[in-house]
Specification:
Mean pLDDT: 95
CATH class of the largest domain: Alpha Beta
Shape: globular
Number of domains: 2
Distance between the termini: 23 Å
Number of helices: 11
Strand content: 15-25%
Largest sheet: 6 strands, mixed
Strand order of the largest sheet: 8-7-6-9-11-10
Number of strands: 14
CATH superfamily of the largest domain: HAD superfamily/HAD-like
CATH topology of the largest domain: Rossmann fold
Oligomer: single chain
CATH architecture of the largest domain: 3-Layer(aba) Sandwich
Radius of gyration: 18 Å
Structural class: alpha/beta
Helix content: 25-40%
Length: 280
Amino acid sequence: MRVRLVAIDVDGTLLTSAQAISPATRATIRAVLERGVRVVLVTGRSFSQTRAFAEELGVTAPLIVHNGALVKDTAGRVFDVRLLEPEVVREIIRRARVHRMDLIVFEDPEGEGRAILEPIAPENDRMLRYLSRWRRPAEIVPDLMLSVDRAVLALTTVDRWKKARRFADAIEREFSGRVRVWRTEYPRRDVALVDIVSPECSKARALDGLARQWGIAPLEIMVVGDNWNDLEMLAYAGLGVVMGNAEEELKQLGYYVTGTNDEDGLAHALRRFILGDDSL
């Protein structure tokens, strides 16, 4: 099988635990691009956060962000967008308050993107650490209910693993068919991210849309990921690769397991399956 398109998750896959792209990974991705293989970054992150990584790598293909809610290239051209209606968003904000969950609202798909949230509970150190890594700060508002007057891209929360899971379970149960809930879980670090998007959103659906535009079959696609929000995309592709830092349950599903994100696992996989060179 010749790989014509590689889809790469960002956190835990492209990035090291220090939130950086290693020199080996950067050089390998550039070599893959020189071979004529399309590289697509696919993530739960926002457009503005992901664009910086794409520009560092020289990736010009559209970015799949917010778990498939938005497909947009670094020049700002929107290829696909799926939004949550404000009525649904306000209902979820009410449920989040019952569960004592902090929420980030992402909007403005046509522009640079806008992230708004209420003041964060001081005990939610997971959310505070998550926001501290952002290059562009979120906008703090006194009341999210008063700020949501249009359709939005996504709602995101970050909290302790079990607490976030309970909230995700409740939203899936109470809003079945009205939203899609994607989980990025790190039990060993006691943290989880929960993304709530339009019901038709997924990394796999967005990737399939791009592949069809380019005349690329699923068998010609390689996917590399590390978490549960990558699972549907891994199953869709002809070649799925799971990072060594993924949870053990994910690594037991039969996909090729490479090294961790701190061992240049992504670079090793790209060299093995695309460049024909397993050395670094």
